Structure formats: structure tokens, C-alpha cells
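It is worth pausing here to work through a concrete case rather than discussing structure prediction in the abstract. The textbook approach is simple: state the sequence, then state the predicted structure, then interpret. We follow exactly that order.
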Amino acid sequence: MTHIFLYSTATEVGEPSAALQSAVQKMHDLVADLETKHRFVAVQGHSHTVIPAQVTGTSLTSRPRPGYAVTLTTVVEIPTDNT
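Step two, the predicted structure:
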């Protein structure tokens, strides 16, 4: 068995739930990708952080707005033989 650390981050304006939902979706996509390549993927543990942040848009004229940044870390176990 091999252990892999997966990371996802998201920053969103508004409530922390918006940033958490975005980060969870990204993590889901990472795990789903591993599931297509391996016989099984077992989540061994995870942690998360949620911190207040000033979020700026992509425009040079956009003003920073209050929001949150979320980081998820997940440890998964996969078969060593890549099947």
C-alpha cells in the first residue's frame, strides 16, 4: 500500500461555507480521479483550515471583499501495484 497526500484550496467571498464547498468539490475530483486508476482508494484521514481573508477579483479595479480561504488535506491509501 502507498499513502498519498492530497491538497485542495479555495477562496470565496462571503460565508465560509462557500469556500468549504469549493474546496470539497476539488478534493472530490482528486479522489474520483484516483478511483478511476486504482482498484480501491481508502481515505485514512483529513484535516482542514478555514481562515478569514480579503478576496480580490481578477479585475485590476476590483476592491478586496471579506471572505474565507479553505485548505483541505486528505491522506489516501492506494494499492502499490497501481491496479
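Step three, interpretation. The helical segments are 16-37. The mean pLDDT is 92.
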